[in-house]
Every structure is written in C-alpha cells, then in structure tokens.
Design brief:
The complex is a heterodimer.
Chain A: H1 3-32, H2 37-47, E1 53-56, H3 59-64, H4 67-74, E2 78-80, H5 88-101, E3 106-110, H6 129-132, H7 139-145, H8 149-152, H9 164-169, E4 199-201, H10 206-221, E5 225-230, E6 237-240, H11 241-253, E7 256-259, H12 281-293
Parallel strand pairs in A: 1-2, 1-3, 3-5, 4-6, 5-7
Helix pairs in contact in A: 4-12, 5-10
Chain B: H1 2-16, H2 19-35, H3 42-59, H4 65-101, H5 119-135, H6 144-152, H7 154-157, H8 165-173, H9 180-213, H10 220-251, H11 269-275, H12 278-289, H13 299-317, H14 321-345, H15 350-359, H16 362-381, H17 385-397, H18 408-429, H19 442-459
Helix pairs in contact in B: 1-2, 2-6, 3-4, 3-5, 3-6, 4-5, 6-8, 9-10, 9-18, 9-19, 10-16, 10-17, 12-13, 13-14, 14-16, 16-17
The chains are: A alpha/beta, B mainly alpha.
Chain lengths: 298, 472
C-alpha cells in the first residue's frame, strides 16, 4: 500500500468536511437573507411573529382556524402553524422551538381522528431542520426520526436536504409583507361529492401518544394555557381511539378539550367542506366563529 | 445507513483476517445480513444450500439416469420452495376465481407467509451450480462453507447479479490482498450507485407513486410522464443496487458480473435484453432457451422458445398476471424483431427495405425501442391488470390534458438527475472522455467524488425506502 493512497483519502475526507461546512455556511447565510417564500414565512412565524395565540396541528389546523377572525375578536395577535401531513411529533418539536423564541398566552392544538393510530414516519420533521437549527432537537427526539439522525446532522449540508433551491430562490424578489402572514390558508368553495362512510378506528401508536403528553407537560411547565380541539369532519365518527384517549388524557391533566365531531348543533353540511376531512373557507369561518365563543377572556 | 456501518466492518475484518478464516468471516457476515430482514428465513436458504451441496458432490459419483434424477431432485427442491413461497397464493387465488366463475363453492386456503427476500435470486444462483456440475462445466465444490458462501455472498444475495459457479467459486479461494485501485474503483462505483438510488430513483418514486396509486384521478399526460419517470426510476434503482453490490465486492477484490450496460441506448429489443439485467437474461438463455433448441429449430418452435423464455422471465419477477403480460409484450416484440431481421436478410420489396433502413437509423431506433420498453413498464408497475389497462386507456385517450406537476424546484431536480444518469450512459456508450469519476486527473476525480457526496447530502431522499428488486 502506497502512502499516497492514504494521503488521497485524508485529502478527500478533509475536502468533504470543508465543502460540507462551506455549503452549510452559504445556506445558513441564505436563510438569514431570505425575503419571501414559504421558508421565509415559516421562519418569520417562528422567530419574529411573537403571537399570543398559537394554533398547532396538521392540514386541518392550517385550513380550519381563521386567525384573522380570532385576532378581531380577542385583540391579540394570533398565528396559525398548521402544516400539511404532520403528526403530533412535529407539533411538539415546533412548540419546543417556538418557546425558545417567545412564550404565547394560549396554545390551540388540533387533533384529528386517527392521529395516534398506525405507523408514523417521523422523518416528516426534516423539512423544519433549517428553521430549528438554532434549537437542536435532543437525542431522544432525533432517535424517533431515525437511529442515525444525530450522525447525519453532523453534516451541515444535510439539514438543508431538498430545500436548497427554495431557500436560495427566496433570497431574490420582492420582500414579503409580514403583516399579511397569518399561516391560515383558506380552501375554496367547490361543489364536491362527499362520502359519509363512518370512522371506526381503534389503531393506537404509543410513541405518537407520548408526544401528546409531552405537549401538555411543556405547556404546564411554561404556564401556558392549552386548548385541545378536534375540528369538524364530514364523516360521522362511530369510534376513534385517538379521540377517546385525548378525552381521557385531557380530563386527567385538567386541559380543556373541545370536540366538534358528530356536532349537530352547527350547520356543518356538505356545502361547508372541501373534502371529507377539510372545511372550505365558508366552513372554516363558521367553525372559527363558534370556536372564538369558547375561548377564554384575555 | 445500517449498511454504511456493516460494510466497512466486514471489509476491514476481511483484510485483517488470515486467508483460512476469511470464508468463515464472509459467510457469518452474509448470514447476519440476510437475518437482518427476517431471521427465520435463513432456514429456507440453509435447506436449499444443504440439498444442492450434496447433489453437487454426488453428481460426479453417479452415471446415467441416476445423475439425471439427482439433478431433477435438486431442481424440484429449489423450484418447489420458490413455488410455495412465491406462487402458491397466486395459484390459489386463480383456482378460487375459477371455482367462483363455475359456480362452485369450493375454496382453497391461502398461506399466511411473507416472501423471503431475494428468494428468486439465490434460488436461480443455486440452480446454476447444480446444472453446471451436471453438465461437467464445474467441478463440485467439496468445501461446504465455500459453497454456502457462493449462494450467500452478501453483496449479491438479495438482488443479484445472479452469478455462475465458474466465475465465483474460485474467487473465494484466491488470496486477496488490499489493492488500492480495487478499493478506489469499488468505492466510486458504490457512490455512483447510491447517487442513482437516493437522488434519482427515490425522487422519481414520489411522483410515480402518487400518479399510479391514484390513477383514476390523473390525466393521461400525467400517467405518461409518470411511466417515463418509472422507466428511469427502475433503471436507477436496480442498476444503482447492482453498482453498490459490485462496488462492495470489488473493494474486497471480488469481481461480480456487469448487470447493466446502458440499456436505454439499445437500438432494438434484442439489444435491450443484452444490456438489461444481463445476469438473468443470460441465465434464461443458457438454461432454458438453448436447451429448448434456441434458434436452431423451425421458425414456429423458435418463436415458441422466445415466448416461453419471456413468459418465465415475467413470472420470475412476481406472482401476478401483470408480470405475465409484461413478459408477453417483450416476447411478442422480440419475435416481431427477429422476424423483421429474417425478412431483411432476404431480397424483396424495395419500399419496405427502405422503410426498415429508416427505422434502423440509430437515434430513431433508440427512441422507438425506449418507447416500447417504457410502455411495457406500465404492466410491471401497476398493482393489477385492471389498473394497468385503466392506465393504458387513460394514456391513449386522455393524453391531451394538463400534467400534474410537483413544485418547479422538484421538477428541476428530477430532470437534472435524469440528465446526469442518461448523460453518463451516453458518454460511456460513445466513449466520450467524460467519465469524471475515473478521470486521469486526480483533482477532477476528487472534485467529482466531492460533488457526488454533496449531491447525495443535499438532494437525496432519505426515507429508508427499499430497492424495488428486493421483493423478487
């Protein structure tokens, strides 16, 4: 074995580390210089918005809670952090990151039927790495994503995996109007055919449920009021293990739980829905108006 | 990721150990590798190894009909295991459907079993050993451990290449020394394979999955794009695996056969099968096509032989009618191509000859062949025959409709990945000096390696997705 081979390997490894750090540095600077785009808005919501009322959840939270109506009614700044295709795990990581920047007065957590069921790909949190890089997730959280996530994150590039073009693109163009950033995204009113198959789901995944309890604990420790809510869905619910567990856990922990499933008092008919699980803008406004009535006084 | 820990330990251990212990080290590592997926299934592999080992040893002791019966027993054992685990439920499903059609109440029970990973690959590799020993092309291996290692060698255990005993067995006995050229070549091959899998195949899989799994709500043009993406996806996925397997073996000094030779640059279907999954197509050629008479028979029998080979190749891939149809399409196109070739050899109609000459213009022939192969992939990818025909119908009747698009950045990265892979293939095919990973200039080589590493970190899809061919 020639010595040159070892030197080549050393140079290569050193070059790789250097290139990784350099690209990481470029991306980090790009994040600071963003002017618009999805990542800019998300970063703004997390680090600068400092909202008093925070809505967490998946796409249902994103499309159901019209925070403009909440702001008008409460005269407090409200922000919607709902993210498509995310689970309670991501909501927990997001809340932890938010608390690093400021302490809201109220957290609204939207839980949907089946949230604690089935298998969950915790890798869903990866797109948030560029936002939460200042507040590293601890070892246990990273292990949920993958047993090797901690090792992967030694790379400065990896945290920007698949976000490079979006982040670089957002450093150009017109600056976004931060006053218009609310996080709420309304779904259009369209006539659609909806099926009313009943929900009867008894699946349960304790590792997801664990993060629901962590959210309750985090809010208690930070002395933040937490409201857990299940917003309306078109399908009638016969039984849902997630909802049953949430009801019990909220009762035990003294957390307010509002359940809109099977709600016959409000006119949540087909005209209010975009699909079986999502309200359209008309439905979202009707739901938010009712939800506001249940909010505590500020 | 687990492999990135397993591989250096095994390779380092291999070079640190004395030659006489190396076979045991590799065998133990291969067992661990296989048991990582489903431990109990190592017993199935063990049974076939023991049977084929004893058949191999005894084949030279017997003569005449006894030898033949011994070979038949080995083939029945191997094919029997394959039949039970891979085809039994498919058979039962079809028989039950027949009963139902005939109005009979009888029902056969299904087996609640999972298909052992890579079963078709190691079964075929084991069968090639007994056949070669029977034919006298290979001396039986007396060392049980070395024979077991031939079947179980971890880089090619779960998805090939399907090796022949003549090219592998002797390699396990040779003393391999650390060779920097081999290590460097092997690592670069693995890196390129990883790039094809993680950056290109897994990205395209997202689009293909969302289009095919919800094909009813997709337009024909979306399904055309998805099918094109699947053609690239399966190539990058499978050839990526083959590169990783060959690279991992090469770093220890082992040479595995080349499984892919730029298949999408083939000018006709026969050429395609000389370039695609070479280890399987040559297996079928040597052990099915030639024994049936190959092309040294009457035209009708020749066509029959081609059809048998492709139908078997289809069913080898999976117990589903979609694979049978996929094989049938390839078989029929191959027969058509052979007939055109035969026609071309004879003097005849000048106009038809000129037309054939036009279609044999390489760029046009490559595009036509790619279109045919891509069309056949619809049946390979679809979950069932109904879905496959539904997709074909939409592709033909609703092609003039908007295409479902991911974000601009996603599409840009997908197209860039496809361009890199196909560009590399074209550079190799036409011997352009663009093989940057093997460039004569050290700085260019190192820069290419760095770029690939950064490309994987920045644009790879890290979702623990498996290789497509692991299921076969």
């Amino acid at each position: 074995m020639k010595l040159t081979f070892i030197w080549r390997v050393v140079f290569l490894v050193a070059g790789l580390i250097l290139a990784d750090r350099m690209v990481g540095w470029v991306m980090h600077s790009a994040i600071q210089r963003q002017r618009n785009g999805v990542y800019y808005e998300f970063k703004y919501k997390v680090t600068q918005a400092k909202a008093a009322i925070v809505v967490l959840g998946s796409s249902r939270a994103n499309h159901h809670y019209n925070v403009n109506l909440i702001e008008e009614a409460t005269h407090e700044k409200a922000m919607n952090y709902g993210q498509d295709g995310t689970s309670v795990f991501t909501h927990y990581i997001l809340l932890k990151t938010l608390l690093h920047w400021h302490k809201p007065k109220l957290v609204v957590l939207d839980i949907k039927p089946g949230d604690f069921g089935g298998t969950q790909n915790f890798n869903e949190v990866a797109p948030l790495y560029p936002i939460i890089d200042e507040v590293a997730m601890d070892g246990d959280d990273l292990n949920m994503v993958s047993p090797f996530e901690k090792i992967k994150l030694y790379s400065q590039c990896y945290r920007y995996n698949n976000q490079v073009l979006e982040i670089l693109g957002s450093t150009r163009g017109k600056p976004a109007d931060t006053s218009a950033i609310t996080g709420y995204s309304a779904l259009p009113v369209k006539s659609v055919v909806l099926d009313n198959l009943t929900i009867n789901d008894s699946s349960f995944n304790s590792s997801i449920y664990k993060y629901f309890k962590q959210i309750i604990l985090l809010c208690k420790q930070a002395n933040i009021r937490l409201i857990v809510c299940t917003s309306p869905c078109y399908r009638p619910v016969v039984f849902d293990r997630t909802i049953a567990v949430v009801e019990t856990e909220c009762k035990i922990s003294g957390v307010e739980y509002i359940n809109y499933l099977n709600n016959t008092l409000l006119p949540f008919d087909a005209g209010m829905f975009k699909d079986e699980m999502h309200l359209n803008t008309k439905g979202a406004d009707a739901f938010t108006q009712d939800f506001i009535k249940r909010l505590p006084p500020f | 990721m687990e492999f990135l820990i397993f591989y250096p330990i095994v390779t380092l251990g291999y070079f640190l150990l004395a030659q006489k212990y190396r076979w045991f080290w590799l065998l133990a590592a291969s067992c661990y590798f296989y048991m990582f997926f489903k431990p109990i299934y190592i017993l199935i592999l063990g049974v076939t190894i023991v049977i084929d080992y004893f058949v191999g040893v005894n084949l030279v002791k017997f003569k005449g009909k006894k030898r033949k019966w011994l070979l038949v027993a080995s083939i029945i054992a191997n094919v029997g295991i394959l039949a039970v685990f891979k085809y039994y439920n498919f058979f039962v499903g079809n028989v039950n459907a027949l009963f139902a059609t005939a109005g009979m109440g009888a029902r056969l029970g299904y087996l609640n079993i999972l298909l052992p990973i890579g079963l078709s690959f190691h079964t075929f590799q084991a069968m090639s050993y007994t056949i070669e020993v029977y034919r006298g092309n290979q001396q039986p291996e007396k060392h049980f451990g070395i024979y077991a290692l031939y079947v179980m060698f971890y880089p090619q255990l779960v998805a090939g290449p399907i090796e022949r005993p003549q090219s592998m067995l002797h390699q396990f006995k040779e003393k391999k020394t650390f060779n920097q050229a081999d290590v460097s070549y092997g690592l670069k091959l693995m890196l390129w394979g990883l790039f094809k899998k993680i950056v290109v195949a897994d990205r395209l899989a997202v689009y293909v999955g969302s289009a095919y799994d919800n094909y009813i709500n997709q337009t024909g043009s979306t399904l055309i794009v998805a099918t094109f993406f699947f053609a690239i996806q399966i190539y990058c996925d499978f050839s990526g695996y083959s590169d990783i397997a060959r690279g991992a073996a090469k770093t220890m000094g082992f040479d595995l056969m080349i499984n892919f030779r730029r298949p999408y640059l083939a000018a006709n279907i026969t050429d395609f099968w000389r370039r695609w999954h070479i280890s399987l197509s040559s297996w079928f050629k040597d052990y099915v096509y030639f024994p049936l008479g190959g092309n040294k028979v009457r035209l009708v029998q020749w066509c029959r032989n081609i059809l048998i080979v492709f139908l078997l190749s289809g069913i080898w891939h999976g117990a589903n009618w979609t694979f049978v149809i996929w094989g049938l399409i390839h078989g029929l196109v191959t027969i058509a191509h052979k007939l055109v070739e035969k026609f071309d050899e004879k003097p005849g109609n000048v106009f038809v000859k000129k037309l054939l000459l036009l279609f044999s213009w390489k760029p046009l022939a490559v595009v036509i062949n790619f279109a045919i192969v891509t069309f056949a992939w619809v049946f390979f990818r679809a979950a069932n025959v109904e879905q496959a025909f539904g997709i074909v119908g939409k592709m033909l009747l609703h092609a003039n409709a908007p295409i479902f698009g991911k974000t601009g950045a996603w599409m840009l990265l997908a197209c860039a990945g496809i361009a890199i892979v196909l560009g590399a293939d074209m550079a190799e095919e036409y011997r352009l000096k663009l093989a940057l990973l093997h460039h004569s200039n050290t700085a260019v080589r190192m820069a290419s390696v760095l770029m690939l590493c950064l490309g994987i970190l920045l644009f790879g899809i890290f979702r623990n997705s498996s290789f497509i061919y692991f299921q076969f």
